[in-house]
Structure formats: C-alpha cells, structure tokens
Design brief:
The chain is α/β, with parallel strands linked by helices and 240 residues long. The chain has a single domain, classed as ComB-like (putative 2-phosphosulfolactate phosphatase). Strands 1, 2, 3, 4, 5, 6, 7, 8, 9 and 10 form a ten-stranded mixed β-sheet that branches. A hairpin with a 5-residue loop joins strand 9 and strand 10. Helix 5 packs across helix 6 and helix 6 runs antiparallel to helix 7. The radius of gyration is 17 Å and the shape is globular. It starts with a strand and ends with a strand.
Length: 240
C-alpha cells in the first residue's frame, strides 16, 4: 500500500479537513448505542443535530424511534436514551432510529466532507479499521481522518490510536490496553458512582469491550438527512 496521510483529530474545531475517509468515534456512548442497535436488528439510524429535527422526523414517520441525550441525560418524550445496555433490551428489530447526541452525532454531521464516512465505538473499532485499510488498498484512497468526538477525553482518543495502529498494521497497541484506558477515562467516571442513577453502570461494560460482528457502520449522505447504514463486510452490500 502506498504512503497514506492519517490524521487523528480531537473534536471538530477547527473544521475537519477534507479526506477520502472519515472515521468518527464516540465510545461513551453514541456509537456503541448504534452498534448495539444494529446487532439487535435495527434497519437504519438518522442523525440530527437538534431535538426539534428529531421530533419533525417522528411526526412524519411515527414508527421511528427517537434515541439520544442532552448533557448525557435522557431527552423528554424520546423513546430511548443514550444507554447501550437499555438499547440492548429494547425491541429495535426492523426499526429505524433517529439519533441526537452531544458529541458523536454532532461530530459526524461536521465531517461529511469525505468520499466515505464511518462511525464507531471501541466495540467495532477493529472491523472498521480493517475495512478502512481494505478501501485504502482497493480504491486508491490516500487520506483518512480519525476523529475523536470527545475532544478532551481519553476514551475516544485511545480508540483513535487503536484504529491508527490497526490501519497501519503497526502491532503496537493491544485491545486490553484500550479497554483499560476507556474504563479510566474521565467520561467513564460517572458510570462508576453508585448514586448517579441516571447513568447505567452496565453501559461501561458494553463500551469497553470488542464485539464480534460482520459489519461496519457507514454514513449514507445521499439523503437530505444523513443516516447510518449497516454494511456487511463479507458481501460489501449495504442493508437498509
């Protein structure tokens, strides 16, 4: 594979530069939620920046499920919050979700200036990195941004370093090291305090481990509202 330019970017300020591939990371918790939802049979996930936009989509499509948070906390009248554990218990099979979150969704909507965009938590970071490497080899891509949506926290940054290690096949970072960094990150602390009942402690178990799956989460920006669609790795076919 020819030399590539791989940039790790923390947050979205200043603006994310154009690239062939953008990978947006939100470990705790947005894209762990998305990954869990897809493993549970969700069809697609629309991404919106505002609560009003989420409710507008729901008004047109009452069967859609609204999921997300503001400041980490549930949004009134949303069907689901931003808890991967609670999503794992919900009936999302064949459902379309609408996701609004403070970091991951906002960072993705600010990073649409790439030929292909993927989102991930740590749970499917390895699959995402390996697919990105395949695209770099097969399509002649040369530039890739790996975006840690939590600008100041180590959960997303450690995952970004792991993805870089996987794409470049450096073999320097073990997944166990990333699991420990996620659990010790500032973002994880609120899940480890018993009286913080708003934050489900079992979320951290899902956010800080790899899950076997045969797909990656690609952003389809062909519609007026971008959506995440599951792309199966064996066939390269996107399902919706």
């Amino acid at each position: 594979m020819s030399a590539i330019e791989l940039r790790i970017i923390r947050g979205t300020e200043p603006a994310v530069p154009p690239a062939d591939i953008n990978i947006v990371i939100d470990v705790i918790r947005a894209f762990t939620v998305s990954h869990v939802a897809f493993t549970r049979g969700a069809r697609a996930i629309f991404l919106v920046n505002t609560v009003a936009a989420a409710f507008a989509l729901k008004a047109l499509n009452p069967e859609y499920l609204l999921a997300g948070e503001i400041g980490g906390l549930p949004i009134a009248d949303f069907d689901l919050d931003n808890s991967p554990f609670r999503v794992s218990m919900a009936d999302v099979r064949h459902k379309t979700l609408v996701q609004k979150t403070t970091h991951g969704v906002a960072a993705t909507l600010a990073a649409l200036n790439a030929a292909q965009i993927f989102v991930t938590g740590f749970s499917n970071a390895r699959q995402t990195a390996q697919h990105a490497r395949h695209l770099l080899e097969s399509r002649g891509y040369r530039t890739i941004n790996v975006i840690a949506s939590h600008a100041l926290d180590d959960d997303d940054f450690s995952c970004a370093e792991y993805i870089r290690d996987q794409i470049l096949e450096l073999g320097q970072i073990k997944p166990e090291a990333i699991m420990a960094r996620i659990r010790n990150s500032r973002s994880a602390k609120k899940f480890q305090v018993p009286e913080k009942n708003a934050f489900e402690p079992r979320d951290l178990d899902l956010c800080a481990r790899e899950m076997e799956s045969d797909f990656v989460m690609e952003v389809d920006k062909s519609l007026p509202i971008p959506r995440i669609i599951k792309q199966h790795l064996r066939t390269g076919v996107m399902s919706n």
